[in-house]
Structures are given as structure tokens and as C-alpha cells.
Amino acid sequence: MSGLDRAKKAAAVAAATAAAAATALLTAPAAVAAPQPIVGGTTTTTTAYPFVMQITDASQKQFCGGTLVSPTKVVTAAHCMVGETTGSVRVVGGRTYLNGTNGTVGRVSRIWIHPGYTGTTKGDDVAVLTLSTSMPYTPAKYVSSSQTSVYAAGTTARILGWGTTSSGGSSSNQLRTATVPTVSDAGCASSYGSDFVQSDMVCAGKTSGGVDTCQGDSGGPLLIGGVLAGITSWGEGCAQAGYPGVYTRLTTFSDLVTTQVNS
Ligand code: ARG
Question: Catalytic: 218?
Fold first, then answer.
């Protein structure tokens, strides 16, 4: 299944679920959980996480996240950049709120998309943007290729973004963050089968669900020990029990990213 098909399918499932929930409400106005931050989590600021960037269109409307890794380089997801050109995107730093006008708007002079990228469930979901001018914010460190032990099952990871606070819901005006445990590769494979490409992906989320990245969080950071270790990529719905979020396994792409950062 292609990433797009999966997204459409996820949207259809979300619509069906919402319809079922609405019907249920007519008869039993009981336990329908309120939508929660990122899904699950709390509000935060770009002052607390200065390397978290909004990826926007030319009108500064946010559609993905990104991470500043040097004054002029931003790591994001390949799937965020499909169909984009240097003129169609901006990188906005230092702007906690989607409706803000503060911070720094960076123009993009180059877009590198992993040459192997064909769809989120195939892997290679990484891109590096080069900015025309430097961002006045402290970049994040990112994992080296040898740091594969950061993904040990159960390790706490931090997710950040402006994405929807429930599957099919609306975006958060304020940057949000949450922590989720890293999931073992065996666990992720049992959730997603062959769509989980172990070399290129890592999963994170609670077995019971409830906390996850969601639509609009893509391209944003998964931090482990404060270091960029993953890129928000995909998942079945959002925050569903048994379906953790799937992140680009950055150790696999660290050397390629470094080549881009130094070019
Ligand atoms: N593909 C989504 C995006 O473009 C990110 C989805 C993450 N989903 C999840 N369940 N963690 O924003």
C-alpha cells in the first residue's frame, strides 16, 4: 500500500470512527475521550525547543515540521517535500504559534530528498533543506551512525509538533510535545508487518495508545536524550492501541545527512 493510499485509508477509518462515535453519543452520552495534545502531551514553546521549525508554504501556512541541525540546514521527511520546489516552501523558526507572525522566515535554496524515497512505508523518508540565510537559533545535535543503542526498547523519546490533536482532527495553534516509549523492532513488525522496514524505521508509542504524533507533525523531531534520533513519518491512524507511530531511523541516514549538512 502506498503512503498516500494509507493516508486516505486512515482518513476513511477516522471518518467511520467519528460517525460511529456520533451515533453512540445519541444513545449513550458517556465516555468519549476529549481530543488531547499532539495526541496526548502538553503545550510548549520554540524558546524551550529552538531547533523545532515549521515547514510552511509560501503563505507561511504550516504543513510539516523540521529540525534545525546547523544554521542553514533543516532535516525533515521526504514525504513532506514531494512536489515541493525551493520557491514553494519556507522554514519558520522561533514561532510557537501557527497564527504568529514573529520569528524568522527562511527561504530555501536547495531541497535534497533521499534518492531512494518512493513512499513512507518503503523507508528512506528523509530530506534536508538548505536555507538561503542562517537561522539565529541553536541547532539540535543528531545521532551518529554508530549510536544504534539509542533505540533500545522502552527508552523514552520526545515528540514535538503542531499536528492534529486527534486522528482527523484539527491542528494545534501552539507547539506541543509528549514523551513515548521506544518500541522493539519485533513489536513494531507485529503491528505493521512488511510495512515496517527495520533498517529505515523505528516505532514509538505506548501499547495502550493515547499518545502519538498525528497529521501535520510529519518531518518533525523524535528526540532521545535530547538528540535528534528520528523523523515523524507515518502510522495507522493516530494514538491507536497496538499501532505506534513510525519514525525514520536516523542512525541509518546519519552519514548521508552529514554529507548534506557539509555540502
Ligand atoms: N504522515 C503524517 C504527516 O504527514 C504523520 C503521521 C504520524 N502518525 C502517527 N500515527 N504517528 O504529518
Answer: yes
Using alpha carbons, list the distances in angstroms from residue 97 to 53, 129, 255: 11, 22, 33
Nearest to 74 by CA among 58, 59, 54: 54
CA distances from 42 to 95, 129, 165, 206 (A): 17, 28, 11, 16
Q: What is the mean pLDDT of residues 107-124?
A: 98
Q: Per-residue pLDDT tens for 27-64?
A: 333 344 444 447 888 999 999 999 999 999 999 999 99
C-alpha angle 182-162-257 in degrees, rounded to nearest 5: 60
By three-state DSSP, how is residue 92 classified? Answer: strand
Name the residue with the closest Cα to ligand 1, atom 4.
218
CA of 237, closest atom in ligand 1: 10
The reply to whether the predicted model has a pTM over 0.85 is yes
* Triad 159, 38, 25: Cα angle to 5°: 150
Beta-carbon contacts of 194 under 8 Å, excluding residues fewer than 6 positions away, are: none
By alpha-carbon position, which residue is closest to atom 11 of ligand 1? 245
Spatial contact of 37 and 29, defined as CB atoms under 8 Å apart: no
Decide whether any atom of ligand 1 lies within 6 Å of the 238 Cβ: yes
Bridge partners (DSSP) of residue 227 are 224
Confidence of residue 18 (pLDDT cuts 50, 70, 90): very low
- Measuring CA to CA, which residue among 142, 120, 139 is closest to residue 131? 139
